[in-house]
């Protein structure tokens, strides 16, 4: 797979987590609290501006799901290795309301995640 191209979304930002499977994988399934290896891109819902990408660093990243934002904890389980999934995370499922102390607080975020491995 290659790095996905994301653009700004139109219409109002969702208030609930939105999960869209872009490619359904056929490998091992991620479970809540699993350790996963992923490639991902994150952009601001309104502007389409990219704020983070493992692709740009040239390497995937591995971590336990229970250490991540709620949108990832809820949005990755059920995904299978080889899959690509879009998650649209409202502030409550991302970095909290505006003023919560993170530079992305108060923003709705869009991630495209490629699941490479479940450990």
TrEMBL record:
<keyword id="KW-0697">Rotamase</keyword>
<dbReference type="Pfam" id="PF00254">
    <property type="entry name" value="FKBP_C"/>
</dbReference>
<keyword id="KW-0413">Isomerase</keyword>
<feature type="domain" description="PPIase FKBP-type">
    <location>
        <begin position="33"/>
        <end position="119"/>
    </location>
</feature>
<dbReference type="InterPro" id="IPR046357">
    <property type="entry name" value="PPIase_dom_sf"/>
</dbReference>
<dbReference type="InterPro" id="IPR001179">
    <property type="entry name" value="PPIase_FKBP_dom"/>
</dbReference>
<protein>
    <recommendedName>
        <fullName>Peptidyl-prolyl cis-trans isomerase</fullName>
        <ecNumber>5.2.1.8</ecNumber>
    </recommendedName>
</protein>
<comment type="similarity">
    <text>Belongs to the FKBP-type PPIase family.</text>
</comment>
<dbReference type="GO" id="GO:0003755">
    <property type="term" value="F:peptidyl-prolyl cis-trans isomerase activity"/>
</dbReference>
